[in-house]
Amino acid sequence: MDVVASENGHCAVAAEAQIRLVLNGNEFATLGTLNGEFHWSRPANWVEFINGAPVLGSVPVNDPARGIVCGNAVWTLDLRDDGTFPVVTGQFGQLSAVGGDFRLLGDPAATPPTPSLAFGNIYVGYQSPGGSGTRLTFAALAVSSASGGATVVDGRNPFGGVADSGIELSLLNGASLLTSEVTLRDWAFLNLEASRLEVSGSQGPGSLTLDAGNAFDSSLVLTQGSVVEAGPVVLQGVRGAALSLSGFARLDATDLSIETASDATASVGSQAAVDLRASGSNGSYSGGTFRLAAGPQGSVTFNLEGTLKARVVDLDGQVTFAAAPNSSVRLDPVDVDDTATLDVRNGARLNAGGQLVAGQVRISGNSSRLVVAAETGQITSGSFLQNNGSTTVNGLLRAGSVEFLAGTVGGSGIIEYDRSLTSAVTFGAGLTVQPGNSPGILTINGNLEAAGAIFDIEVAGLDPGTLFDQLVVNGDANLTDATVNFRFIDGFLPTPGDTFDWLVVSGFATGLDTLTVSFFSDLGTVEGFLDGNGRLFVGTVTPIPLPPAAWALGSALLGLGGLARRRRAVHLQTLTTGSRWAPTPAAKRGRCGPCRGVTTSSAPSCWRRRTASRCTPV
Question: Quick check: 48 and 59 in contact, CB under 8 A?
Answer without folding.
Answer: yes
